[in-house]
Inverse folding.
């Protein structure tokens, strides 16, 4: 008799990096993004190519990279915007988000794309 596996624990934090394959900064940042993902198992990190997922982004026009979107466990956006491509910046932001120190994003365009990003993150 096999014991059923426990249901996976939902992430406490969702971190989406919106980048482009042609962007050299993005390619360099991807290694740091992946590194932090392995260090924070309570968070789900998802790399999103803006050209592959253009329809998902709706009215948003991502022109600067890397652009991050962070959402809490309840699917509330806590950060959306361009960041410096440094590991320590990403670490600080993730720690602040996990501690509940980031206010909700009020921009309706970002809120509108979040359900699609979350669905992409769960797929």
């Amino acid at each position: 008799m096999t014991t059923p596996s426990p249901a996976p624990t939902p992430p406490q934090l969702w971190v989406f990096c919106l980048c482009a394959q042609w962007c050299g900064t993005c390619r360099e940042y991807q290694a740091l993004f992946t590194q932090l993902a392995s260090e924070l198992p309570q968070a789900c990190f998802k790399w999103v190519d803006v050209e592959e997922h253009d329809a998902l982004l709706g009215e948003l026009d991502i022109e600067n990279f890397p652009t991050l979107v962070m959402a809490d466990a309840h699917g509330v956006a806590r950060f959306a915007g361009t960041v410096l491509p440094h590991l320590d910046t990403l670490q600080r932001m993730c720690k602040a988000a996990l501690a509940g120190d980031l206010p909700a994003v009020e921009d309706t365009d970002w809120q509108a794309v979040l359900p699609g990003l979350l669905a992409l993150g769960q797929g």
